[in-house]
Amino acid sequence: MRFIHTADWHLGRTFHHASLLEDQAHVLQQLVQVARASQPEVVIIAGDIYDRAVPPTEAVDLLDQTLCELVLEANLPVIIIAGNHDSPQRLQFGARLLESRRLYVFGRPSDQVRFLQFYDEDGPVMFYAMPYAEPAVMRAYWGDDQITSHQTAYRAYAARVTRQHPAGIRSVVVGHCFVAGGEECESERPLSVGGTGEVSADCFAGFSYAALGHLHRPQTAGSDAVHYAGSLLKYSFAEAGHTKSFNLVEMDAAGRCTVDASPCWPVAMCAPWKVTWMLCFASRPNRKHLVILCGCGYWMKGHCWMRWGDCGRCIQT
User: Fold this and answer.
1) What is the mean pLDDT of residues 174-199?
2) Which residues are within 8 A (CB) of 283 and not within 5 positions of it... i.e. 6 or more apart?
3) How far, in Å, CA of 145 to CA of 150, rounded?
4) What share of the chain is helix, strand, coil (3-state, %, to 5)?
């Protein structure tokens, strides 16, 4: 089975007060093009669709356009879960209606284990969705006083899945959490204070693939089956060395997964500032200028934010 795993779009985010919507639209078009060409059985978006609970209308429009291209034009099923930046209630609005078009949105947690089943030539694959929720919310939904942290919430969830999952059937879990041992960066909002936000990788033992969101660097964490797709753009100067991507996953009949990271080529690049001017190559010939946006603190550290253009030079401003 083939599927795409992406996460942490953070639509509506700004970079030092500059809107990134054009940049986000640019990389989302790349994702749509890969999806059209590869024809996966399903596209997974593992949380932090928006950057804040009440996103700007332009961000909502961009999500609407992207999902229309994936679901209506490319005829691909899409699974979305809420992340810690999203409003679960707002994200889940209309979810029951959208299911008829194979757009599956999981915003709020549920007192039931929720899953979807897709088929390939080797049989079914079950996709389990666990949107982000605070431990107190999960404790209330499930009526389990033992849930006091993200770790105990995921253990309780895994135990419920184990009780009902048919033996021998391949499975994917979609979640939004911080797995212990994962590499953080400064653009991520902490899930909690004091380490109680960590989840151990063994919570995902038994799943063929864990499609996670929250960490912005693409990586595995604690297990070869636990994957973060990472964000589509560099959202801080600390990410200047990251290669941003989304995962194109091939699962065989035994549940073994081969992961191909499909790189995202942005309109803008976060790069070190070395000299007063430098020669640049245009990635988009229709852009009029090369603009530098910088934060004053980072300027002193020797960084700048560069947009590619067709003027041929990097102009210091």
Assistant:
1) 71
2) 265, 267, 308
3) 13
4) 25, 25, 45
Is-contact 26 65, C-beta < 8 A?
no
Length of the chain: 317
| Contact criterion met (CB below 8 Å) for 275 and 253 | no
Give the phi and the psi of residue 137 in degrees, each rounded to 5: -70, -45
CB within 8 A of 289, min separation 6: which ones?
A: 309, 311
Q: Which two tokens stand for residue 19?
A: 């809107």
Query: Would you list the domain boundaries of the chain?
Result: 2-263, 268-307
Query: Three-class SS of residue 141?
Result: helix
The one-letter amino acid at 43: V
Q: How far, rounded to the nearest angstrom, does the alpha carbon of residue 178 sit from its chain's CA centroid?
A: 13
Q: 2-263 has which CATH code?
A: 3.60.21.10
What amino acid occupies position 219? Q
Give the single-character DSSP code of 198: E
Entry pTM = 0.84
pLDDT of 274 reads 40
| DSSP H or E run through 44 | strand 42-46
Q: Distance between CA atoms of 18 and 294, rounded to whole angstroms?
A: 10
Quote the strand ranges of 217-291, DSSP E: 219-220, 226-228, 245-251, 257-263, 268-272
- pLDDT, tens digit, 9 for 90 and up, residues 219-267: 999 889 999 999 998 887 777 777 899 999 999 999 999 999 999 887 7
Q: Please tell me whether residue 297 adopts helix, strand or coil conformation.
A: helix
Asked if residues 203 and 158 have their Cβ atoms less than 8 Å apart, the reply is yes
Nearest 5°: CA angle at 89, between 178 and 209?
A: 35
